[in-house]
Structure formats: C-alpha cells, structure tokens
Design goal:
alpha+beta, about 25% helix, globular, binds zinc ion
C-alpha cells in the first residue's frame, strides 16, 4: 500500500516534467532487400549529410534517389550527383517533419515517417533506419497492429502496451545497427499513423506511461487477438511463470469475431498425422486415456508441446479445442485466436466500448501491475 502511494506521489510529481522525449532507432524493411529508394521531404525541409558532412538541403516535396552501388550509398537528385558514402542521413528540421520512402523496383508501398532517416549498407543492400521519437513510433505501431474504428480507450491501452514493449526490448537487434525491426518479430511499424485520428490523440494523452510489475520493472505486455473466454497462465503456454500473466475469466470477448472456430479433418488424415507425431500420452479428461476415439464425443488432452505442434501443422487459430467425431471426420471445435496470454484484444475493445477506462482494462488483464511515467521509472532505476 505504501509502495503504491509512493509511486502515485512520484507519478504526480513527474507527470509534468516528461519533456525529454526518448528516441528510438527502428530498422525499416528489414526482411526485404532494398537497393534503390526515393526519399521525399513531405512537410518541410531536411538537411542531408554524407559521412557526417553536409551535402545539401532537401526542400519540401523534393526527392532524392538513393542507391546501393558497390558497397556504398549513392545519392543524387534530378540535377545533381552527390557521390557515394558509407552513411547518408536525412536530418529533420522540426519535431513534426516527415518524409516518404518509396521503393524503386522492389514493389513496396510508399510509407511516410516522422523525424530522421539514416541509410547505410548491410548485406549488399541499403539499410534504412528511422530515428524517431518514441511517441511517434508508438502511434505508427498502434495503427499497424489494431486498425481503424476502435474505441478511444482501447487505443490508449495499445499505446501503453506498445510503448512498454519497445522500451523493454531495446536490445533486441543489438549489433545490427538499430534497436527494433519493423516486422512482427518486434512490433509491426509501417511509418506514422495517418488513417485514424483517434490514435495520435490516444498516444498523446498517455504520453510516457508504461507498465511495470511490483518490482518496478517494465513488463512483457503479452496480448493476443481473442482468449476464447479465459486468458491463460504464461507457464501453461510458455515455460516461464510470470507474476502478472495469470489466467482469468473473460466474458467480454465471448461474442468477438474470433471467439470460436471449427475445422474438419478426415479421420484417415488425422490417423496418419497421429502416427507420425508420436504424441506424449496423457490421461484424457473422460478417464479413457487419450488418443482413443470415442464414438460420440470426447475431449482429448494433449501435452503442451503437442498442442503447439498440432496448431502449427493444421493452421488452427488456437491450441484450445475439443474434438468431435462425425462420420469419417473429426471436427475440431476451438475457442479464441492466438496464445491467450495477457491482454485479450477483442475483450479490451468491448470493455473500451462499454466505458471502462484504459487503466481499468489494463489492470483487469495484467495482475498486480502499475502504470508509471517513464521519467519516474528512470528515477527509480537511478536510486
Ligand atoms: Zn525485431
Ligand atoms: Zn478474451
């Protein structure tokens, strides 16, 4: 109780002083080979540097062509060839500057980014790194991971989760020249948020807020699409027991889009799979022993690893299912979509729509967590 009070006081104290914005280096198009791109200044001008030396100013709506040539980054405009460098930088002149990156040849959509861009060479292609204010980055992630037309409180929830994740995983790409990639491996990020007006608002209204456990450490804010009516303990899905990732019932997601699924597989196909799979035997809930097909209905219990393999091999939405025999087929009747640990997105969307606050939503999915300002977290660390 005392600890909570202390955190709250410090929270109030620091809430107004979160001015020093954190910057993050995000590797762009990390799973593609980019050899030629266009960079266009969108909102105002950028200063261009080649190996630290000022080359030119890129005025609003002007573009530069960047190309991988013989191990270097070559840069030229319509009228000028600026030569080749180990590293080319586009430095923003204001906090709100944006630029567009457009792949030439490789068919990538053009994407718009906030703040700075650094281009170097990696594995015979261009390595593009967006040096971006974390709040701008969070907006982009929330849009890419959740889409449009969600409740405002839900966008706040996702903003806090995404910010916490980014800060807890700063070293994920250590040695590669950037901190996080822009793909599912880290968090999907396709540039700034531009289709949903509520997202930048939600990011701003939760600026700097992150989630910590009772030891004031950033949490692994796991989430999945739909938990199927009950979230799961982290140790039941992964190997590690985590104090804040505890199973709890969830009635909010029961009529969600991914609450239920079915898939039919022929008995002969399943038998073949079963022979190859060598399941670890476990007692079935009906007491008859697993792997024996009941004539009417039976619930099978599989080993955790077997379940993960079955889900992967048949493309099921979750590992939570029962099997029902019907003629010469087995019907898999499943619940939920994803691993089911931590926050359930469809449940959280429903809660947001019903008027629950982002704090209430987060506290209902993560056990014994605190919301805290990043600056006060740094304060705790330095103590
Ligand atoms: Zn990554
Ligand atoms: Zn749920």
């Amino acid at each position: 109780m005392l600890q909570r009070l202390l955190i709250y006081i410090i929270f109030l104290f620091f809430i107004a002083s979160n001015a020093n914005a954190q910057v993050i280096e995000v590797g762009l198009f990390t799973y593609k080979s980019m050899k030629k791109v266009m960079v266009i200044a969108e909102t105002d001008s950028y200063i261009i540097y080649g190996d630290g030396i000022r080359l030119s100013e890129l005025l609003q709506f002007e573009g530069m062509r960047i190309e991988y040539i013989e191990g270097k980054v070559a840069i030229r405009s319509l009228s000028n060839d600026y030569g080749s460098y180990k590293e080319v930088e586009f430095r923003a002149q204001t906090q709100t500057s944006t630029l567009t990156i457009k792949g030439i040849e490789s068919k990538t959509n053009e994407r718009e980014y906030n703040n700075h861009l650094k281009i170097s060479v990696f594995a015979k292609s261009l390595q593009l790194i967006n040096i971006v204010n974390i709040e701008n980055y969070v907006g982009g992630v929330v849009e890419a991971e959740t889409g449009k037309n969600r409740p405002y409180e839900f966008y706040k929830v996702q903003s806090i989760i995404s910010r916490t994740y980014a800060l807890a995983n700063f070293n994920r790409h250590e040695g590669e020249g950037f901190q996080l990639c822009d793909a599912v491996h880290c968090q999907v990020y396709h540039g700034l948020s531009r289709y949903e007006k509520l997202i930048p608002k939600a990011v701003l209204s939760t600026e700097g807020i992150v989630l910590v456990n009772s030891d004031i450490e950033l949490i692994t804010a796991a989430f999945s699409s739909n938990c199927g009516g009950k979230t799961r303990n982290s140790e039941d899905v992964w190997s590690k027991k985590v104090s804040y990732l505890k199973s709890r019932p969830d009635t909010f997601c029961l009529d969600g889009k991914h609450a239920q699924w079915t898939k039919t597989i022929s008995i002969s196909e399943w038998k073949k799979y079963e022979e190859k799979a060598h399941f670890t035997p476990l007692q079935a809930s009906n007491g008859k022993g697993s792997m024996i097909m009941d004539d009417s209905y039976s619930e099978f219990i599989f080993n955790k690893n077997d379940l993960v393999a079955i889900r992967r091999d048949f493309g099921f939405k979750s590992t939570r299912f029962v099997m029902e025999k019907k003629n010469d087929s087995i019907i898999f009747i499943g619940r939920g979509f994803g691993h089911g640990v931590g926050l359930c997105q469809e449940g959280a969307i429903k809660m947001g729509g019903k008027g629950y606050s982002y704090k209430e939503i987060l506290e209902s999915y993560y056990t014994d967590i605190h919301l805290i300002q990043l600056s006060s977290l740094n304060f705790f660390k330095s103590e």
